[in-house]
Amino acid sequence: MTYQIDPKHSAARFKVRHMMIANVGGEFNNVSGTVEFDQAKPEQSKIEASIDANSLHTGDPQRDAHIKGADFFNVAQFPAITFRSSKVAAAGSGYTVSGDLTMLGVSKPVMLKVESVSPEITDPWTLQRRGLTATTTFNRKDFGMGWNAPAGGGVMLSENVEITLDLEMTRAAS
Fold first, then answer.
1. DSSP secondary structure of 50-95
2. Is 65 in contact with 76 (CB distance < 8 Å)?
3. Domain boundaries, the chain
4. Quick one: which of 56, 85, 117, 155 is 20 to 30 A from 21 by CA?
5. Phi-psi region for residue 7, left (φ > 0), alpha (ψ -120 to 50) or beta?
6. Residues 6+ apart with CB under 8 A from 99
7. Which CATH code for domain 2-171?
8. Contact criterion met (CB below 8 Å) for 56 and 72
């Protein structure tokens, strides 16, 4: 089955260790793409997703402007973050999805851990829907996000960023 990611009901959340004492985070609330999901043969499944980098928000406009700027996402030059799967495999009650994450013009392999894919339901508007939650961690320096500053706990930001994707999808028309 082919599903479209519903941008109104999906988000990519991130968190990173700040001054090595607590996590700070935010989210991108404009996620789109296609999921081809074959529960019987997961190896035939595929995911292609795109995140509008400018949809980032952390709850602090000054921090948002810094993160959207050249030190981090450079949204003026690189408006999209993309993921394209290369392999999907069953893993317990969930799945692993290997693929390429592209940010700032740099593509690196990552592995998403999908907790589970919900059963398909019919919503009040007769659309067929499913949901999934996937997580991954990557080193931001691998993508050229090298900004940092000394801080009392060591450095201002950890290099490791945790991502959680909460996706709601609608079945594409046949």
1. EEEGGGEE-S-HHHHHHHHSTTTT-TTT--EEEEEEEEEEEETTEE
2. no
3. 2-171
4. 56
5. alpha
6. 47, 83, 84, 85, 86, 87, 109, 110, 112
7. 2.40.128.110
8. no
Dist CA 161 CA 98 (whole Å): 17
Provide the pLDDT for residue 159: 76
Q: Say if residue 121 is exposed, middle or buried (CB neighbours under 10 Å; 0-12, 13-18, 19+).
A: exposed
Q: Residue 49: enclosing H or E segment and its boundaries? A: strand 46-52
153 pLDDT band (50/70/90 cuts)?
Answer: low
Q: Which residues contact 62 (CB under 8 A, 6 or more apart)?
A: none
Percent of the chain with pLDDT over 70: 91
Cα-based angle 86, 31, 29 (whole degrees, multiple of 5) = 145
